[in-house]
């Protein structure tokens, strides 16, 4: 009977949830995709071929049991589908919204390779957990037994929150320290609402707080509290700060007003959406309204900046990227959404200098071509001599990626080893660092990466921390 519900990819075409029209979605920061209806979710889930070796699962960082929860959805067993989904993923409704499925699970779907169009895995994942919340299937975190050991987590982003969830379910006392006034890290302040509405994040924060997780916000480690004090207060510590230092751009004129960092621009926009007082937004410093915007970069952060600028009422929005469309690291789905909304992509273009005395007036652009492959296998961009021109701009946003802060120096701590890139040196499986009882996860270990990898790291490190705490108990008992 179950087999009759599946393998329908030859009869049922791929279909995404309805997407609001570009002219409508330009006017607000609401998510652009509607929810699947139950019948549509079951229909799309039924397209799964139930592979013997599911590449969707193997290419998911969390190794989510995708075929099983697709089958359960197709059979109308939605609560069971949710249980399977959440068994490996702390925040499936967030991953369903912001994961680049076209590069991960959906991009490796077997029926996609056979020309039938991939299963809409992300949309079904989002639907399953949203429905679970609506029906009360998402239960409060209730440890079977409280333990006396405590863990301090530095950073309330996805890695830190995922670890807190795992630890708290085992009865560990958890305190999270974060520099911002709201928990969530980039989920709250970095990703725009049209990709991830903020009540989705707030709901998870409230779940953790109700479970007994203590949040110490507006807390800069190294200033408001020392790293050594956190170590002394807790039996183990997890560093999950992420990376927020913007990569520098060296070019003549880069220091003039009107050239801003992506993280500052996005944070100001998100704060404004919360109703906060944001002077830099109100005075126009971090506001695209009525301006000619140029964004420099090619990743998902650049996509967030151009699409935010459109919604703020920019006169024009252009993105400069030094390679072509096929070599862009950002999601192709996001590129399509941005183009629909009115963003102009200027491929094979790189900033050479900035025009303007007191305030930026334009970007001197070098036209590029792709040459021989570099060490990563990607073709290296080469400047075309004599093809420079000036792109007018009232506001230039640098979305060039992020680098780690110098944590040992900022925290005035010895013995915390870092790599030559400045990331914390930690075991990729356990998150163990060079300091006893100190673990690290997410971007501060990997470099700038995906939310799903931070969740994976947080869950893995939490398990390793539990083993560490258990071993210490054993030693104490002896």
From TrEMBL:
<keyword id="KW-0004">4Fe-4S</keyword>
<dbReference type="InterPro" id="IPR023753">
    <property type="entry name" value="FAD/NAD-binding_dom"/>
</dbReference>
<dbReference type="InterPro" id="IPR028261">
    <property type="entry name" value="DPD_II"/>
</dbReference>
<dbReference type="Pfam" id="PF07992">
    <property type="entry name" value="Pyr_redox_2"/>
</dbReference>
<dbReference type="GO" id="GO:0046872">
    <property type="term" value="F:metal ion binding"/>
</dbReference>
<dbReference type="InterPro" id="IPR009051">
    <property type="entry name" value="Helical_ferredxn"/>
</dbReference>
<dbReference type="GO" id="GO:0004355">
    <property type="term" value="F:glutamate synthase (NADPH) activity"/>
</dbReference>
<keyword id="KW-0408">Iron</keyword>
<feature type="domain" description="Dihydroprymidine dehydrogenase">
    <location>
        <begin position="25"/>
        <end position="136"/>
    </location>
</feature>
<feature type="region of interest" description="Disordered">
    <location>
        <begin position="1"/>
        <end position="25"/>
    </location>
</feature>
<keyword id="KW-0560">Oxidoreductase</keyword>
<dbReference type="Pfam" id="PF14691">
    <property type="entry name" value="Fer4_20"/>
</dbReference>
<dbReference type="GO" id="GO:0051539">
    <property type="term" value="F:4 iron, 4 sulfur cluster binding"/>
</dbReference>
<keyword id="KW-0521">NADP</keyword>
<keyword id="KW-0479">Metal-binding</keyword>
<feature type="compositionally biased region" description="Basic and acidic residues">
    <location>
        <begin position="10"/>
        <end position="25"/>
    </location>
</feature>
<keyword id="KW-0411">Iron-sulfur</keyword>
<dbReference type="InterPro" id="IPR036188">
    <property type="entry name" value="FAD/NAD-bd_sf"/>
</dbReference>
<protein>
    <submittedName>
        <fullName>Glutamate synthase [NADPH] small chain</fullName>
        <ecNumber>1.4.1.13</ecNumber>
    </submittedName>
</protein>
<dbReference type="InterPro" id="IPR006006">
    <property type="entry name" value="GltD-like"/>
</dbReference>
<feature type="domain" description="FAD/NAD(P)-binding">
    <location>
        <begin position="151"/>
        <end position="458"/>
    </location>
</feature>
């Amino acid at each position: 009977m179950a087999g009759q519900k599946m393998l329908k990819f030859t009869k049922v075409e791929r279909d995404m949830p309805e997407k609001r029209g570009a002219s409508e979605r330009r006017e607000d920061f609401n998510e652009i995709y509607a929810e699947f209806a139950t019948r549509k979710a079951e229909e799309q889930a039924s397209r799964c071929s139930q592979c013997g070796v599911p590449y969707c699962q193997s290419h998911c960082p969390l190794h989510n049991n995708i075929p099983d929860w697709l089958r359960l959805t197709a059979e109308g067993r939605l609560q069971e589908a949710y249980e399977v989904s959440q068994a490996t993923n702390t925040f499936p409704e967030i991953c369903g919204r912001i994961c680049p499925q076209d590069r991960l699970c959906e991009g490796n779907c077997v029926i996609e390779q056979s020309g039938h169009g991939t299963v809409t895995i992300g949309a079904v994942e989002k639907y399953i957990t949203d429905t679970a919340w609506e029906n009360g299937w998402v239960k409060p975190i209730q440890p079977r037994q409280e333990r006396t050991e405590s863990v301090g987590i530095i950073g309330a982003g996805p890695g830190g929150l995922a670890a807190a969830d795992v630890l708290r379910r085992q009865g560990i006392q958890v305190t999270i320290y974060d520099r911002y006034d709201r928990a969530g890290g980039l989920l709250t302040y970095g990703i725009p609402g049209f990709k991830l509405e903020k009540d989705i994040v707030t709901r998870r924060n409230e779940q953790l707080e109700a479970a007994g997780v203590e949040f110490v916000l507006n807390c800069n480690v190294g200033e408001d509290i020392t790293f050594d004090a956190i170590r002394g207060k807790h039996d183990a510590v997890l560093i999950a700060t992420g990376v927020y230092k913007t990569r520098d751009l060296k070019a003549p004129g880069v220091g003039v007003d009107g050239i801003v960092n992506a993280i500052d621009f996005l944070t100001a926009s998100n704060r404004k959406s919360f109703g906060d007082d944001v002077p830099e937004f109100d005075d126009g410093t971090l506001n695209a309204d009525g301006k000619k915007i140029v964004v420099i970069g090619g990743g998902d952060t650049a996509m967030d900046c151009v699409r935010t600028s459109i919604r703020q009422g920019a006169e024009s929005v252009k993105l400069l990227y030094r390679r072509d469309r096929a070599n862009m690291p950002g999601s192709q789905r996001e590129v399509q959404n941005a183009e629909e909304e009115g963003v102009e992509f200027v491929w094979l273009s790189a900033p050479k200098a900035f025009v303007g005395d007191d305030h930026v007036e334009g970007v001197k652009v070098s036209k590029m071509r792709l040459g021989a492959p570099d060490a990563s296998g990607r073709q290296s961009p080469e400047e075309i001599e004599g093809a420079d021109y000036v792109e007018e701009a009232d506001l230039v946003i640098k979305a060039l990626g992020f680098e780690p802060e110098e944590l040992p120096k900022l925290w005035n701590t010895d013995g915390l080893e870092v790599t030559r890139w400045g990331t914390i040196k930690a075991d990729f499986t356990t998150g163990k660092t060079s300091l006893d009882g100190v673990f690290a996860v997410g971007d501060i270990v990997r470099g700038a990466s995906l939310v799903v990898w931070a969740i994976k790291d947080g869950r893995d490190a939490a398990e390793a921390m539990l083993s560490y705490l258990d071993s210490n108990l054993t030693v104490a008992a002896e």
